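Forwarding these from the shared drive since the link keeps breaking.
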Amino acid sequence: MLTKRIIPCLDIKNGRTVKGVNFVDLRDAGDPVELAEAYSKAGADELVFLDISATEERRKTLADLVLRVAEKVNIPFTVGGGISSIEDVDILLQNGADKVSVNSSAVKNPQLINDLAAKFGSQCITVAIDAKQINGQWIVHLVGGKVPTDLKLLDWAKEVEKRGAGEILFTSMDNDGTKDGFANEVLCKLSEELNIPIIASGGAGNMQHFIDTFTKGKSDAALAASVFHFKEIEIKDLKQKLQDNKIPVRL
């Protein structure tokens, strides 16, 4: 059985790690290089580094920061934010990223997923999907959750799988930063209807929430930010708790 992954997320704005609630009210959470190194040593399975203002401000992800982070970690490392071409991905992989995450650019140009998967391999390509419920439907949003689209979550998720994405990072905007738990009902639906790994994001507040997303949500990995950044949950303790609940993890 594949082990479940625990993934701290570093949301980067202006070179600092930040954290908000429902995608707004950002506060400083520390130096991304120091945090990344600490998580690597603490037993995190992977890291995700998202330059959250890159798409909004139409500039490229900070490749030099990626390089500095990559020099300090020995675990797989995904980078996202403002990626819209093969050249962007080339630079990030050369600077030490193991995978890239695309979001807004993939919705605007779905062929990008095919092109990146063909050039770098599906295992390198994560498609991030931010969605919130509107009139009972999960609707995909872009530009850090600011712009709604006409896309329904499940339809888009199936399309990105077909186009060659290696995994999906799904963030429930309704749950993000609330610490009320992950959106397990829709996560379970995604996991049942797709054949690629689903990373749960948005809502982690305590250890039980991680147990729930692996059991009820059938998630392959769980991503969180503030509970790790502000030391509310230690990764070592979390993994022990998961193992005690018969959830396979790498200790």
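-- next protein --
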Amino acid sequence: MSLRLRLVTGTDTGVGKTVATAALAAAHHATGRRVAVVKPVQTGLSPEEPGDSAEVHRLAGVDTTELVRLPEPLAPESAAFRSGAVLPTAAELARRIATWSDSTTPPEVVLVEGAGGVAVRLDNAGGTLLDLGIALESYGAVDVVLVVRAGLGTLSVTELSVEAIRRAGLEPAGIIIGSWPADPDLAERSNAEDLPRLTGVPLIGRIPAGAGALPTGRFRADAISWLA
């Protein structure tokens, strides 16, 4: 089995990863590709509450799954430590993603949505989303999409995140601005020009602010226009 695997991570929490993941999924699906989305670890929700994978399914209409859930709204390692839970290792998460994807009609693209930024720990051993990406290379080609903020402060943290991705031996395929205002100010307009220049990574999308509140039909129809 060979998969195309795209890790969707961010420079921080709250930058718009889930909506960006849904937009990527909808755009891939609109071109005729079979797409699936995995959330390896979800925190901050009770068992009955819909999580990020449910939101992606609502917006994009593709198959989604969540592998682990922890109730406290903390980084996965911290939430697991407080609850006494033992999280799967990055290698085990990779195996579960590959096994879930190995169906009679396997997806052509699997998007893996992280939690927070690139250095957030997903397991008890300190494994991060980047470690998960390295483990996933056993199952297919892996690249990384980085979701960032539009405004002041984004240049430095984006450069640091790209540096970490490259240091892990993974390929940053593109940057997406997770919430692009209808009337961007000078800093936001400048950042859109400077992000690819300073990182060497193409800006592949700008998700309009509030896109997650659009009706699903409109979201799916418009998503491809938000991405390069």
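The CA atoms of residues 150 and 188 lie 5 Å apart. The two ends are 28 Å apart (CA to CA).

- D.
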